[in-house]
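Per reviewer request, we include the raw input and output of the structure prediction for the construct analysed in the revised manuscript.
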Amino acid sequence: MSEKVIPYKNSTESKKEQVATMFNNIAPKYDFLNQLLSLGIHKGWRKKTIQLIAHNQPKNILDIATGTGDFAIEAMKLNPDRVIGIDISEGMLKLGVEKIKKLNLQDKVNLKLGDSENLPFDNNSFDAITVGFGVRNFEHLEKGIHEIYRVINHGGTFAVLEFSKPKNFPIKQLYNFYFKYITPAVGKLFSKDASAYTYLPESVKAFPDGEAFLTILRKAGFKDCKSIPVTFGIASIYIGTK
């Protein structure tokens, strides 16, 4: 199991509650900082992740930790009947709903408050499930993955996009420097929540990436699990099938 990392060291709230508070705090600047700190590369990662669930033409898609809805919006390119996005942050969801209305997608994309560890859906409800940069924020990772397995259809695809830990010189050194010094400084400057962008590199460091995460997927019951590194291993796309 991964080390438990929390956003606010002096808080008595659970990790789940702290993560919700953190994203509520940074919601107004989240999309801007995402674009700035990733130099826009995250858009290509998101596009590739959605392409990897296209093969079985999913009609019902669930996006967990949807935030401001970017993954749910990208999933509409697959022409599904519906996309549901859930998140524990009301602040992020509010911005996502506004974004979806501007794109006139509200008839097919529905964002709602929801917890990955207690999904409010019946067994075998979705043809595909995505999580973009959210699994490392789960309070109980394995419980969340088991819940995802429960609500996905047999033959359905589960896709996760998450930061990794590059291993090769000099990407590893540059990545560690950027995450340790640049990300917290820029995040503090624009979001006014220093803890949020200190938590980011700490949570990435603690996350069981690569083969360790594939093992968790297999333990939950997923098969044909694989990891696809993107951009020199800065992030990885994980795929599993029920």
